[in-house]
Write a structure and sequence with these properties.
This protein is an alpha+beta fold and 178 residues long. The protein has helices spanning 5-24, 98-111, 148-163, and strands spanning 36-41, 44-49, 66-67, 73-78, 89-95, 118-124, 126-133, 141-145, 167-175. Residues 24-28 and 54-60 have low confidence and may be disordered.
């Protein structure tokens, strides 16, 4: 298989962005924000600051603990029967149950004009982004990440690589339980 100059250019951009995202998006385990690490166990979970993690070697002698309060759900529903451009989409976030998030996303999609709405993604304690190709490409990309910026960047990269054209973010949001 021979690549054209245009395909080689987009492939190069794709690999550069993947490397950038790999380096850029380093997250602590256990859904903790940047600069924190998970603590607890056996049902009691929380996040504590990483000692000496601040600039200048400052260590907080009285750390504040941020517990994982609850699991919050979000969902995306789409009517893909109308194509990508201008399709009805419904979004929800910060619901206490998965079923409620999905039901409300379907209702929002129908209120946006959808007649054949289907849930395309359900997520909890994460951020999500949808990227669509600008010039009527074939596929949109939905990506989850621990940060909204990470989800946006990833969705754009994968959309670009799938459609070989620039993409735009049509939705992003987070459902975080802390």
């Amino acid at each position: 298989m021979t690549l054209t100059n245009n395909q080689f250019f987009y492939l190069s951009i794709f690999f550069i962005l993947i490397i950038y995202l790999t380096i850029e998006n380093v997250h602590a385990e256990g859904n903790c924000p940047s600069g924190y690490y998970p603590i607890g166990g056996q049902g009691a979970q929380g996040c504590a600051p990483i000692p000496g993690g601040g600039s200048g070697g400052y260590t907080n002698q009285n750390p504040t603990l941020y517990p994982m309060i609850e699991t919050l759900w979000g969902a995306i529903a789409e009517d893909k029967s109308k194509g990508l451009k201008g399709r009805p989409i419904g979004f929800t976030r910060n619901f206490k149950s998965k079923d409620e998030a999905q039901t409300k996303a379907l209702k929002a999609c129908q209120q946006d004009g959808g007649q054949k709405c289907e849930v395309s993604k359900t997520y909890s304690n994460r951020c999500v982004a949808i990227a669509d190709p600008i010039n009527d490409g074939q596929k949109s990309k939905i990506l989850l990440d621990f940060s909204e910026d990470g989800a946006k960047k990833g969705a754009l990269v994968f959309c670009l690589s799938e459609n070989l054209q620039p993409c735009r973010i049509v939705y992003s949001g987070c459902s975080l339980g802390y």
